[in-house]
Design brief:
Strand content: 5-15%
Number of domains: 4
Shape: rod-shaped
Order of helices and strands: HHHHHHHHHHHHHHEEEEEEEHHHEEH
Helix content: 40-55%
Structural class: alpha+beta
């Protein structure tokens, strides 16, 4: 409740306490003056009526305001006001000896109530159509104003709530059509809001919309040119947040890199010093690496870890450290198991074990697995590899709404992924019950447990 309304409430309470009969006197005075105005018309004499009905001089100003307010309410009862009704109101104000300032104030207060009612009607369907805008224009015109000025000076809070509701409504299905965008921008312009103001206003639902798009596009582990254009359009038109834009672009770049890997397209990096490469051997990746293996000591299995450098080429993996060096020929790998930031290799000899890469050095295990598959000529096309994992769009939409656009484990709204609760490899399907939203961190921790 505003300060003005609080003070008005307290004032009425105090008046009722010290002068309990005042409201009844005011009601009688209003009725007497209204009746005299209707009966006497141009012969109406306010001073004579006040004297005749013994109206208290201290009540006179409030009675006059209430009479004029009732006339305003009647004139606006159909939601609009005619030129004839405006002339009648001027006639009433003159005969009530109401000052021009007080009359203008009361007119504006009544116009604001009508303006608010029209906006409220627009709230119901989330669209400010031509008929509703014409009504707003008529209301504002009675105060020598426009809907945009009226909105900006008197109804900013209601207008902002309306635009937020409108934008959230058009995004409810996870899509934004050209027609819906035109409706939103047209309403924004009609209410006199600049593009910068609008962006600030819709920041949260717009960010969630982009997150939804990103999670959708990531669900099939690839992103095409149309999907990338869609994300860039949303970032350009809906948001002005450099940090969030960098995050989205980083996610797009990661998806592209993973897509390239599934297609057998491996990156090339500068060969490191101290590694003897074969003629024509290409280095695809190098980073710090921790080699973990199990040794038998005293009849027990003991885990040993050695930190060194890992180098992935098109032919082999080379691990070097001050303690030991070894290599794994891709074509000699008997089996493997991928973990977050790590890969467990089964092969003959002492090179078998777990190779773990730091989290900030992304794609090490993916690059190694792609190199192994290429060396063994078992690399399959992305479509064949991902058919079983493809989640239909209607399922993704229902899961997004059900999980509230956030991770079901930690409630994070970022780095979201659609996850199979029971993995596809273990017979999990693509129904709503088997799909959930997880952030990348929680998804990784789940993979560790599995």
């Amino acid at each position: 409740m505003s300060t003005k309304r609080v003070l008005s409430f307290l004032q009425k309470g105090w008046t009722a306490f010290v002068d309990p009969d005042r409201e009844e006197r005011l009601s009688r005075g209003v009725a007497s003056i209204q009746r005299a105005l209707s009966d006497q018309r141009d012969a109406f004499d306010l001073a004579a009526i006040v004297e005749k009905h013994q109206i208290d001089p201290e009540d006179r100003a409030e009675i006059v305001r209430r009479v004029y307010q009732k006339c305003l309410t009647k004139a606006w009862s159909d939601g609009e006001i005619s030129t004839k009704e405006l002339r009648t109101l001027d006639w009433v104000a003159k005969h009530l000896r109401l000052s021009e300032q007080d009359a203008s104030q009361l007119k504006r207060e009544q116009a604001e109530r009508v303006f608010a009612a029209v906006l409220s009607d627009a709230f119901q369907d989330g669209v400010l159509d031509d008929t509703e805008f014409a009504r707003l224009s008529d209301v504002a015109r009675t105060c020598d104003s426009t809907p945009a000025n009226f909105f900006r000076t008197r109804f900013r809070a209601q207008g902002e709530a309306f635009l937020q509701q409108l934008f959230a409504r058009v995004l409810a299905d996870g899509e934004l059509t050209a027609r819906e965008w035109h409706s939103v921008t047209e309403t924004m312009g009609r209410l006199g809001m600049t593009e910068a103001e609008f962006r600030e206003l819709i920041h949260q639902p717009a960010e969630q919309f982009v997150e939804h798009l990103l999670a959708d596009f990531k669900s099939d582990e690839q992103i095409d040119a149309t999907e990338e254009d869609c994300l860039n359009w949303a970032l350009t038109h809906l948001l002005n947040d450099p940090e969030f834009t960098r995050y989205v672009h980083a996610e797009i770049a990661q998806i592209k890199r993973l897509t390239n890997l599934r297609q057998g397209i491996l990156p090339s990096v500068q060969p490191p010093a101290g590694i003897a490469l074969k003629a024509g051997e290409i280095v695809h990746f190098l980073a710090e690496c921790r080699f973990v293996t199990a040794r038998r000591r005293g009849g027990e299995s003991v885990s040993e870890a050695v930190v060194g450098q890992g180098v992935i080429t098109d032919d082999r993996f080379v691990f070097t450290s001050s303690e030991r060096s070894l290599q794994v020929i891709h074509s000699k790998v008997l089996g493997f198991q991928q973990h977050p930031h790590a890969i467990e290799i089964q092969c003959a000899g002492s090179a078998a074990g777990l190779y773990r890469f730091p989290p900030h050095t992304q794609y090490g295990p993916d690059i190694w697995l792609t190199a192994i598959r290429k060396a063994n000529q078992t690399l399959v096309t992305p479509r064949q590899a991902s058919d079983a994992r493809h989640i239909p769009r209607d399922v993704r939409q229902r899961v997004w709404q059900r999980d509230g656009g956030q991770c079901v484990e930690c409630s994070s709204p970022h780095y979201l992924e659609f996850d199979h609760i029971i993995p596809v490899a273990r017979g999990g399907g693509n129904s709503d019950k088997n799909i959930q939203l997880l952030c990348r961190g929680c998804n990784g921790r789940k993979s560790d447990k599995i």
